[in-house]
Write a structure and sequence with these properties.
heterodimer; A: 248 residues; alpha/beta; four-stranded antiparallel beta sheet; 33% helix; B: 181 residues; mainly alpha; two-stranded antiparallel ribbon; 2 strands; 64% helix
Amino acid sequence: MTTAEPRLALATRGLTKTYGDGESLVRAVDAVDLEVARGETVAVMGPSGCGKSTLLHLVGGLDRPSSGEIDLAGRRIDRLGERALARLRRTDVGFVFQAFHLMDELTVVENVELPALLAGHSPRRARARAMALLDRVGVEHKAGSLPTALSGGQRQRVAVARALSNEPVLVLADEPTGNLDSAATLDVLRLFEELHESGQTLVIVTHDERIAATADRLITMRDGAFVDETRLTGGTSGRLGALAGFES
Amino acid sequence: MQQEVVLALLAKEPSHGYQLRARLRQALGPVGEAMNAGQVYVVLTRLEKAGLVTTERPERPNPAKTAKDPADRKTYVLTPQGQQRVAEWLTEVSWPKPDLAEFHLKLVAAAAAGLADPLGIVDTQRRELLRRLREAQRAAMAEPDGSDAALLLEGIVLRLQADLRWLEACERSWTTRRSTS
């Protein structure tokens, strides 16, 4: 019997990423302390260049910090070697990007099963898992299509399915609705809500107030640091009528 | 509720009050939840007094079939003046007015008198708008595709987003002013 699962999916302490030196030193991420509980959805907002994407890359092992610590599910990852870090990116973290980053020459199901194949699962098992995930995100009928034949919203659903391929501890999303119209955004928000309800931990960096408003917690970032934190949970106020100008 | 709204709903066919209420509920979804059940009747009574609507009663009321509320036994019908008012209303250009000036002046006055930090006021407002956005967004997510109410909720969401963007502009501007003063 192993020890109990750690409460936190992610924790950083003094996480810092700098570029350049001397006069031209830029603190892209400046001593960030972040704790994300298992099952929590956290949105990070801030203007372009505030460091939110860099933060996401650091905690997902796509980039290395200049200093500070990162714990992913209780395991230090800031000092991992290149190979261990590559394995971590494949198995413990799922990424969703603004531009989807699907491989256009592979079919939808091939895109989704790729992470499982890279992690060493059998083709049969990888395919079965991919089909189950496509079913879960509602695009199983497009399994044999090329990504270019799909709408933006459908492509992002496929990207989410791919991110879930290896049952990651953490799903990281970078402007996931940046390329989507209003209806497709709603669609992706519903999908995130379903993931949230199933207990998936999500960290989303975004400009989109709609995502921010549906997260459990909203962190505002400026110049590489957290400047505000808001917990948005709570019941309804019944004021929708007033919001619509429909006075009751 | 605007009288014209009820008038226009009645343009489809002569209806009972509860039928109008059902049409409103259908179109508004969660937005209409706070609507008082008696409101439609209050408006209908006003419309009747104004000569825009008349009522018809069934000739021989069947107690088994009629609704409990006596007002529900009446069928409301548009008068020619009512028809005309609906036609006019449909061509009128009106749009809800946002009241940005008051908030803007609050920031200006707070900063000038040194009473409060404009950025603090912006923050408080932003949280409130985010809460409202959360509520509208959640309601929108719960609506089935293509529902009338979903379209209305999208409108609420887009307006709140626009307000939040303006608050960002306020924040940028007041941050710059503070650091240069």
